[in-house]
Each structure stands twice: as structure tokens, then as C-alpha cells.
Q: What sequence folds into this?
């Protein structure tokens, strides 16, 4: 388990969770620790993510469970301890904002506010000052989610639960909200358990990733470790893509931003981040081309020298190639035919080529 470099690991509160529960033939048997920051529960449909969230919220009584926030016990079935949901100190963000329709945004925010938290600071952080006198039905889906984030923060929670909070939004709205979740991650002093199917959200938001498969934790680590592992494919082969960490070097007049990724320049469509900002970029495996020689006369701007670490053949014609580069571990999806023609094998030197425009805006995050 790790905390991404540069991320404040402080704040102190740590969630420890051990759960066992059976629904017919489905058996949940999960154990993990979530530090401050965003712990993403990542897994295919039916792997048990929502069951973990519901049990943590106190909305489901598991067969066996011990859930603690530092020395505070939320439930311990062995000792008969069971705190009801409203005594658990939770901030909850659902798929839809679930704001009170008859209250204004300000009243919604104040409803669960604890004295300690400052309304003005949260309103400023989320950019919702102009919305305070409106009612929820007069807000877009993205605005409602910003208010829901604010409401969760103002309740001064010890733990925030976010259940696929972007799933109901279209792509432009998702892109609009992701930066606010990044701010929540960096502002909240408590752990955030965040459920998603989306590799882009894992790459952008996660401090720690917990991978679930059929009710079991199969992997836990940083986004770079987990998304760079060719065996972790809960979002299907098209969702596979590694995460690189890089620093914004400069913005160019022709609409490109140059990053420094371990000494290698990477060019992206222009971002707003100031030079010096640390970023994470997810690079989809299917957007990476491999070449044995350094290619010349090619339109792609991003060429990373590297060494093949391993290959993993799929059921179809494709192979995932793990390439270690100075910028970090990359995954490339090539055909088995190409892998054989290029004689790719562990230890072989190669170049990974990534088109600038293949790096989607939602795949570029700060932190
Ligand atoms: N109340 C219930 N009664 C019976 N079975 C249930 C109940 N809730 C969940 N299950 C089963 O438990 C398993 C895990 O469900 P869960 O909702 O936790 O998965 P998930 O990973 O959140 O899935 P999704 O991504 O589709 O939301 C599934 O097989 C589901 O059918």
C-alpha cells in the first residue's frame, strides 16, 4: 500500500476494515486499510464494491465485520458493537447529488454543517458562490455534485464514502467535476472510499487502489503500480493503461504543454496547470506503438526509450507488453504477430511512441 509521492499523508485518520458476508453464492471476504486520501475500490460489476460501502455506512449488517477509524469502532460483530449510520461521522456522496429539493443550495450546505467547518472556504473551493440561492432542480448534474461534495465536507466527517459519484454524468460534466474531487482529496483530512469502474478516475484521483474480484481483495497499491500491472483488467482490455508521473515544464505557443517525465519530454494538448505542477497521466495501452529502433520521420511527438519487462498474451490476437521507461512503467497493446516480428522479449530495448492527441484531457490529473 502506498501514498502517492507529494501527497499529504497526514490528517491521521485511518480506516481499518475486515468484512465477511454471503449473498447466496457470492462471498465477500475483504480486508484492507485506507489512509487519508482517496482509496478507490476498483473492480468489475458484482465484485463487491457497493457491499463494502454499504457495510461501512451501516446500511448493511455483514455476517462478520470489524471496521475502525483509528481507535473508534464503527462495528465489531465479535463484540456486538454496531454504530447506526448517523453516529458514524460519515460524509456520503452518491451517484446523484440527493440534495433536499425544497431547500436552497445554502440551506442544503448548512443542513449538516458542524460548527468547525467554514462555509465560505468550502464555497470558494468548489466555486459554488453563484449557486447559493438556487434550488437543486435549477442546477446541472455537475453543479449538484459540487454541492454534494460541499455538503459532505461541511459535515466535518471522519470518513467520506463516494459511490460512483460521476457515473450519472456525461463526459464533459465528468471532466468538469474531476478537479473538484482532486481538491476534495487534497483538502479532506480523512480517508475517502471511492467506488468506480473507470480507470481514468483511478488514475486521476486514487492515493491507494484496492482491486476487488469476486468478493476478494486481489491487489492493493498506488495507481502507477496497479494500473501498470497487466494482470489487473477489471475494466476490460480497452480500459488498460499505465500511469506516469510528470512535472509541467512549459507551455508552447502552438497549443501544446511540455512535461518532464523522468527527464524525457512529453507533449500533451495544452493544460491549465502552471509550470512546476506535478501531474499524473494515464496512457491507454492501445494508444502506444512499439518500435525496436528510434523512429525517424514520424508525426508522433512522444518517443520514450525503454526496455521490455514482460509480455502477457491475451485470448485474442493481442499481447500486452510492459515497458520500463525513464518516465515509469508503460503498457502497450500490440498484436502477437507484431510482438513476434519485433522479437519482443524481456530485456529487449525498444521505443514507445504515443501520439500527443491520444492523451485525453480527463486522463491528465494533478497531484
Ligand atoms: N441485497 C442483496 N441481496 C442479494 N444479493 C446481493 C444483494 N446486494 C448485492 N448482492 C450480490 O452481491 C454481489 C456483489 O454486489 P455489489 O453490489 O457489492 O457489487 P459491485 O461491485 O458494487 O457491482 P456494481 O459495480 O455492478 O455496482 C453481486 O453478486 C450481487 O448480485
A:
Amino acid at each position: 500500500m502506498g501514498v502517492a509521492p507529494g501527497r499529504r499523508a497526514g490528517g491521521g485518520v485511518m480506516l481499518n476494515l475486515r468484512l465477511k458476508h454471503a449473498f447466496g453464492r457470492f462471498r465477500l471476504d475483504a480486508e484492507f486499510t485506507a489512509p487519508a486520501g482517496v482509496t478507490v475500490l476498483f473492480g468489475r460489476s458484482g465484485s463487491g464494491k457497493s457491499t463494502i460501502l454499504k457495510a461501512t455506512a451501516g446500511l448493511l449488517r455483514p455476517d462478520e465485520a470489524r471496521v475502525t477509524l483509528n481507535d473508534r469502532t464503527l462495528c465489531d460483530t465479535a463484540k456486538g458493537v454496531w454504530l447506526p449510520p448517523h453516529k458514524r461521522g460519515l460524509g456520503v456522496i452518491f451517484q446523484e447529488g440527493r440534495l433536499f429539493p425544497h431547500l436552497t443550495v445554502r440551506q442544503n450546505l448548512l443542513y449538516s454543517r458542524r460548527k468547525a467547518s467554514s462555509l465560505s472556504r468550502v464555497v470558494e473551493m468548489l466555486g459554488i458562490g453563484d449557486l447559493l440561492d438556487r434550488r437543486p432542480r435549477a442546477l446541472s448534474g455537475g453543479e449538484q455534485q459540487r454541492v454534494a461534495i460541499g455538503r459532505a465536507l461541511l459535515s466535518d466527517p471522519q470518513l467520506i464514502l463516494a459511490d460512483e459519484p460521476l457515473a450519472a454524468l456525461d463526459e464533459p460534466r465528468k471532466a468538469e467535476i474531476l478537479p473538484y474531487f482532486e481538491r476534495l482529496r487534497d483538502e479532506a483530512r480523512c480517508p475517502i472510499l471511492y467506488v468506480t469502474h473507470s480507470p481514468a478516475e483511478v488514475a486521476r484521483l486514487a492515493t491507494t487502489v484496492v482491486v476487488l474480484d469476486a468478493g476478494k481483495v486481489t491487489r492493493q497499491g498506488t495507481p502507477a503500480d496497479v494500473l501498470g500491472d497487466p494482470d489487473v483488467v477489471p475494466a476490460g482490455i480497452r480500459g488498460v493503461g499505465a500511469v506516469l508521473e510528470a512535472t509541467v515544464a512549459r507551455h508552447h505557443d502552438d497549443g501544446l504543454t511540455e512535461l518532464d517525465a523522468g527527464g524525457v519530454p512529453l507533449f500533451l494538448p495544452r493544460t491549465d496547470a502552471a509550470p512546476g505542477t506535478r501531474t499524473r497521466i494515464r496512457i491507454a495501452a492501445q494508444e502506444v506503438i512499439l518500435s525496436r529502433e528510434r523512429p525517424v520521420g514520424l508525426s508522433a511527438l512522444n518517443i520514450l526509450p525503454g526496455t521490455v519487462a514482460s509480455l502477457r498474451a491475451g485470448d485474442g490476437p493481442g499481447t500486452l507488453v510492459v515497458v520500463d521507461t525513464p518516465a515509469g512503467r508503460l503498457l502497450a497493446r500490440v498484436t502477437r504477430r507484431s510482438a513476434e516480428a519485433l522479437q519482443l522479449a524481456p530485456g529487449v530495448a525498444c521505443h514507445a511512441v504515443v501520439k500527443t492527441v491520444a492523451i485525453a484531457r480527463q486522463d491528465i490529473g494533478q497531484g
